């Protein structure tokens, strides 16, 4: 919401010395987010005056149309002679009043004006457009043509209100009242302790039976509808300068007088309005839900297919507008032909949720929908209609019809019971009853009672629904900066849980291995499962969908971390970073077998354990996963030697490093799953309670997946379940015992069938070697040798033996090796090579 300071002063008698920066500080202290204060005309310097075009000479022989004009600026030029000005614009004629900037002036952007030779003539100044004066778009697209009654030599800076300060306020969803001058003025009045000149305090005639007929079929969607009629409008009348300038400063483009007035009143009172050309409305105006598939062409020229939940305005022909969003093209005010002389003014109050969903469904955000979905004061509708009628009569020469239509659904004001000391308890500050009552009354509440207050909230504050909302109003008006800063004192013995410590260690391990953490949004579209090549019955396809997603293209919560990471990898690769290693740890979401509805927790007391358990039971299962993706070089080439590209082994090693950090043994074997290459995919498993459990996969991604997602060739990935890894963990890893005795190394090469996994052979060797075995490492794999035989491979291991209390003999080490080989032969059919 853009708030011109000059306009704000009409409703609050601010001290003359107060600048926009001062008002900004006050409003920020009151809780409004005033982002900037724009200084309009700060670098503008006159003389800038009104002139009248006396003659125009067309200059020939140039590539574009050039005109040499003689302009009467009175005595503003010091001589009283006609001013010679060269101009290329063509939207003005002899006799028109225009804005002239004379030599010596400075326009916005530090553009100094001086007499200069151009097109064979000397131009002594400029005839100005709105853009050149920093006024913004006025809809004309050319030179400013002023009304004929403006006197020559009038100061145009003052006439056009070019010097002002504009506060730009980012209005949060709970403060819809601040989307109006009335709402901001109320906050300013409270902040300065000054009275408010409420523009909604108007004398409004009572409804009668002579007004334009209105039928509301859905009182839940529209609980108030006011209709007024104005006839005898002069269609040629233009919006006055002050009205156009206020709209421009507020960020709106002037269109036509009737439309400008409705926009002006909306900005002033916060009540969206709509003006219908009465001659184009057939029959009574109605409000109902649309029929599925109905068509409506809105003012933007788009024909829209309506949904059964859309609230529409109708006449005898059908829909003529999307209620609270945008009017229809078939009843719009004619601002091109200038034939509209009778208008029907609509000032209604619509259900906020319905308007928000309609605007989102049709991707049609408007100034009206932005206000309705945040909450509009229903009591302001009749005043807004009256204000619109008054301006149409005053500015367009119209006549207000005696008929007044008001359709109102019965409703009672909302009251809240709150202990007088409740804000004190919330803030930890002793405000006292008197301060609480005073602040709530400043907001507009009616307050009764002593120790127990009964508070009736004002109609313009639909966000005040419970005691804590009222406490927040007291606290913000007393000043958040006045709240004491008290650090919490946690009891001794509490700290990070084992789960939290494991997650932090895992992040450090991956970062230390050269991976960069990439945090992604937890939202996905179900099409990603097809891109990843997951089977139709894959459990990851069962997703939790959001009722109100941020994006219609990503309405579900993720069941895997890979889509987000692969998207980040593709984006970075497309921007020139080709050697990438990214990781993420985060929650994935799996739906419960039984859908449960979460209850609403109380805010006036701590929830019971049963209430918290019930809420938790309604949530989806949320295990924490870890994932990595790699592409490009894993080791860079340089003077030190050749580099090495990332491959499937790096992805598996990332999983192994996480298992080591968790203090558990990771089982790695050949696997096949979804996005991974069927011949380069490892299945990751752990032993939990004596049972093997698959917790993830690692390896090189499938070429088809890479092509579909636009990823680099040979991209690798790993993802595993950290919670399952923790369950298999023996707790914090223990530091190794350091022996001072020498190591005994024994190498063995075993011949096994190609189908035998290395992990099975290693497990048998490790068990057979016993306690003396310090480490085992696979250092060579040999296949396809004629001496091995068809379908065989050779696995070479380095076994390190060491004792804590003595130096091992050769016989002891050899004996342990032989037992290990024998057990491997028994379990896997391994034969000692050579």
UniProtKB/TrEMBL annotation:
Keywords noted in UniProt: Aminoacyl-tRNA synthetase, ATP-binding, Cytoplasm, Ligase, Magnesium, Metal-binding, Nucleotide-binding, Protein biosynthesis, RNA-binding, tRNA-binding
InterPro entries on file: aa-tRNA-synth_II/BPL/LPL, B3/B4_tRNA-bd, DNA-bd_dom_put_sf, Fdx_antiC-bd, Fdx_antiC-bd_sf, NA-bd_OB-fold, Phe-tRNA-ligase_IIc_bsu, Phe-tRNA-ligase_IIc_bsu_bact
Residue ranges annotated for the FDX-ACB domain, each copy included: 739-833
Chain positions recorded as Mg(2+) binding sites: 463, 469, 472-473
Chain ranges of the B5 domain: 411-485
Cofactor note: Binds 2 magnesium ions per tetramer.
Cofactor (UniProt): Mg(2+)
SMART domains per record: B3_4, B5, FDX-ACB
Record-linked CDD domains: PheRS_beta_core, tRNA_bind_bactPheRS
EC number: 6.1.1.20
Subunit structure: Tetramer of two alpha and two beta subunits.
Similarity field: Belongs to the phenylalanyl-tRNA synthetase beta subunit family. Type 1 subfamily.
Name of the protein in its database record: Phenylalanine--tRNA ligase beta subunit
Organism: Streptomyces mirabilis
């Amino acid at each position: 919401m853009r708030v011109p300071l000059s306009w704000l002063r009409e409703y609050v008698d601010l001290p003359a010395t107060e600048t926009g920066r001062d008002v900004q500080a006050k409003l920020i202290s009151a809780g409004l987010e005033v982002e900037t204060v724009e200084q309009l005309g700060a670098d503008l310097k006159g003389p800038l005056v009104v002139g009248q075009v006396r003659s125009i000479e067309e200059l020939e022989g140039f590539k574009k149309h050039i005109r040499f004009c003689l302009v009467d600026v009175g005595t503003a030029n010091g001589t009283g002679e006609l001013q010679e000005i060269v101009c290329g614009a063509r939207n003005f004629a002899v006799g028109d009043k225009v804005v002239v900037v004379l030599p010596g002036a400075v326009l916005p952007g530090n553009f100094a004006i001086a007499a200069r030779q151009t097109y064979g003539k000397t131009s002594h100044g400029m005839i100005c457009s709105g853009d050149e004066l920093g006024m913004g778009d006025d809809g004309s697209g050319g030179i400013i043509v002023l009304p004929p009654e403006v006197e020559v030599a009038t100061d145009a800076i003052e006439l056009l209100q070019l010097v002002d300060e504009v506060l730009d306020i980012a209005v949060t969803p709970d403060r819809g009242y601040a989307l109006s001058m009335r709402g901001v003025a109320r906050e300013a009045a409270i902040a300065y302790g000054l009275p408010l000149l409420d523009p909604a305090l108007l004398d409004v005639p009572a409804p009668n039976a002579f007004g334009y007929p209105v039928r509301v079929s859905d009182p839940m969607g529209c609980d108030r509808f006011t209709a007024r009629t104005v006839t005898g409008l002069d269609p040629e009348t233009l919006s006055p300068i002050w009205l156009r300038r206020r709209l421009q400063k507020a960020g709106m483009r002037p269109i036509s007088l009737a439309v400008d007035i409705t926009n002006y009143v909306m900005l002033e009172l916060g009540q969206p309005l709509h003006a219908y050309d009465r001659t184009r409305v057939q029959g009574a105006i109605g409000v109902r839900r649309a029929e599925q598939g109905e068509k409506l062409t809105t003012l933007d020229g788009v024909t829209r297919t309506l949904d059964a939940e859309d609230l529409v305005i109708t006449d005898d022909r059908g829909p003529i507008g999307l209620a609270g969003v945008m009017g229809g093209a078939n009843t719009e005010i004619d601002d091109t032909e200038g034939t509209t002389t009778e208008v029907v003014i609509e000032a209604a109050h619509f259900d906020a949720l319905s308007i928000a969903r309609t605007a989102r469904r049709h991707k049609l955000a408007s100034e009206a929908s932005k206000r309705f979905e945040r909450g509009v004061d229903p009591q302001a509708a009749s005043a807004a209609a009256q204000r619109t009628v008054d301006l149409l009569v005053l500015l367009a020469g119209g006549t207000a019809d005696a008929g007044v239509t008001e359709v109102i659904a019965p409703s009672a004001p909302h009251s809240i019971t709150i202990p007088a000391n409740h804000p004190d308890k919330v803030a930890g500050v002793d405000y006292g009853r008197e301060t609480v009552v005073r602040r709530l009354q400043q907001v507009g509440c009616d307050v009764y009672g002593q120790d127990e207050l009964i508070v009736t909230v004002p109609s313009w504050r639909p966000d005040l629904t419970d005691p804590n909302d009222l406490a927040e109003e007291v606290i913000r008006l007393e000043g958040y900066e006045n709240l004491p800063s008290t650090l919490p004192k946690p009891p001794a013995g509490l700290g990070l849980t084992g789960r939290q410590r494991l997650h932090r260690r895992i992040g450090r391990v991956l970062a230390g291995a050269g991976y960069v953490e990439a945090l992604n949004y937890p939202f996905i579209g179900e099409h990603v499962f097809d891109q990843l090549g997951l089977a139709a019955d894959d459990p990851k396809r069962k997703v939790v969908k959001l009722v109100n997603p941020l994006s219609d293209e990503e309405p579900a919560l993720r069941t895997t971390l890979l889509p987000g990471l692969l998207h980040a990898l593709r984006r970075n690769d497309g921007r020139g970073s080709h050697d990438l290693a990214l990781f993420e740890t985060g929650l994935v979401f799996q739906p419960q077998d039984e859908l449960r509805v979460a209850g609403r927790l109380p805010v006036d007391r701590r929830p019971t354990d049963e209430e918290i358990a019930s809420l938790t039971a309604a949530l989806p299962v949320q295990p924490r996963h870890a994932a990595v993706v790699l592409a490009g070089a894993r080791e860079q080439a340089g003077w030190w030697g050749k580099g090495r590209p990332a491959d499937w082994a790096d992805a598996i090693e990332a999983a192994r490093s996480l298992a080591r950090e968790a203090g558990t043994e990771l089982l790695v074997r050949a696997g096949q799953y979804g996005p991974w290459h069927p011949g380069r995919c490892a299945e990751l498993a752990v032993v939990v309670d004596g049972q093997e459990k698959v917790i993830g996969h690692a390896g090189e991604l499938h070429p088809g997946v890479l092509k579909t997602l636009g990823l680099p060739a040979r991209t690798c990935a790993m993802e595993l379940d950290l919670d399952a890894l923790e369950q298999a963990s023996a707790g914090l890893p223990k530091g190794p015992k350091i022996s001072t005795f020498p190591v005994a190394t024994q190498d063995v090469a075993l011949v096994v069938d190609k189908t035998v996994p290395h992990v099975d052979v290693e497990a048998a060797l490790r068990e057979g070697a016993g306690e003396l075995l310090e480490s085992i490492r696979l250092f060579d794999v040999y296949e396809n040798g004629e001496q091995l035989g068809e379908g065989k491979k050779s696995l070479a291991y380095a076994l390190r033996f060491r004792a804590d209390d003595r130096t091992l003999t050769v016989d002891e080490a050899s004996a342990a090796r032989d037992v290990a080989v024998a057990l491997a032969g028994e379990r896997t059919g391994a034969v000692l090579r050579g």
